[in-house]
Amino acid sequence: MHTEQLSYLDSPLPITRPNSVIKVHFCARRKALEHHLVRICNSDLPGKGQLEQYLCHKYRRNCSANTLRLTATSLTQFLSFFHNMGNYQLAQMSREAIAAFIEHEQDRGMKPNTVCTRLRAVYGFVRFLIEHKIVGYELLERRMRLRLPDRLPRAIDPQDLNRLVSVIDNTRDRALILLLLRSGMRIGELLNTKVTDVEIRQQKILIYQADKTGLGRVVYYSEDAQAALLAWLRVRDAFNEHLFYGRGGKALSYAAARLIFNKYLHKAGLQYSGYTLHCLRHTFATDLLNARMPLECLQVLLGHCNLEITRRYARLSDQTREQEYFDAMDRILKGDVDADD
User: Fold this and answer.
1) Cα–Cα distance between 327 and 321 in angstroms, integer?
2) Are residue 100 and residue 74 in the same domain, yes or no?
């Protein structure tokens, strides 16, 4: 066996990894907070002092860097709109102002999920202002509720998937795409993975802190992903701690990973299919449900806090029900059905 492969197989997981994860997570959150605090401080937004306090409050509640970013962006947009309406004090806030802002975002062509995120951020800020007796509780009466389209997760068609995998000719890229497909990891989770997070012999990866939930979990991967990963481990820079890295040795960015995926979509003639990197995770979930994996088990592997989120894949993966329908319809058309008197 290749000596470099042996070193990866036998390397123990260092006990310092969780601490380093916490440190990186802390730095990302702190950086996000400070970035937005500076921008707010230099603005002329009404109530910017309260907005700064609210973001610090969210930070103390251990919200992720992404949550801080979305909250700051949404509330900056809202307060800017509020100011343009001729309001200079938060005490002037009304339900009509909130409704007007939401209509404005819809008119701008914002996606329903984005508008819903904006609305949640505004109501979270309103609750904070109520607690500090800056606005009245009437702002939360008869709250606006947006109906979101109940879109099913999109899996990659099996024939398209075969075409895609067959054109991946780069060792790193093949390992990256097959691991996403076979482990169900979120893209950010895999891009943040260190070599020492992978237990090759057991074919599993330790995620110390999930992107969305902040919770740790263990994921597993298949034999074809194992073969692709070992091929990558043999040729990669053995001194780089990141499992996947780009130019300069830094962890591969999401933008770079997306470009890689789109390159192979184009090579496979699937550039107009609408597939995204996240479709690999959807495909993983759909395939496992079709293979009769219990929903509760899949929930843990995907890192979902709510089983209802996982249950959406059950509607997408119902190949058995589809086959049963056509079998039953075939019997009906052949007249093989016993009618009741």
Assistant:
1) 10
2) yes
- Average pLDDT on 15-37 reads 66
Please give the backbone phi and psi of residue 242, each rounded to the nearest 5 degrees, phi first: -75, 135
Give the structural domain span for 219.
153-321
Angle at 179 between CA 173 and CA 180, to 5 degrees: 95
Integer Cα distance of 25 and 114 in angstroms: 25
206: part of which helix (H) or strand (E)? Answer: strand 204-207
Q: Return phi, psi of residue 273, to 5°.
A: -80, -20
Pairing of β 217-220 and β 198-199? unpaired
Domain count, the chain: 2
Residue scoring higher pLDDT (328 or 239): 239
Rounded CA separation 240/254 (Å): 18
Strand order across the beta sheet in which 198-199 lies:
198-199, 204-207, 217-220
- In the block, residue with structure tokens 């000596």: 3
Which two structure tokens, joined as six digits, stand for 128? 């904070």
Mean pLDDT calculated for residue range 223-248: 95
Q: What are phi and psi of 243, to 5 degrees?
A: -65, -45
Looking up residue 68, the CATH number of its domain turns out to be 1.10.150
Scan for tokens 């990659």, then name that residue: 156
DSSP string, 247-307: GGGPBPPHHHHHHHHHHHHHHTT-TTS---THHHHHHHHHHHHHTT--HHHHHHHHT-S-H
What is the rounded distance in angstroms from the CA atom of residue 295 to the CA atom of residue 62?
29
Range 92-99 average pLDDT: 93
CATH number assigned to the domain comprising residue 295:
1.10.443.10
Structure tokens at 51: 């907005």
207 and 68 belong to one structural domain: no
245 assigned to some structural domain: yes
Element (H, E) at 199: strand 198-199
The DSSP code for 196 is: G
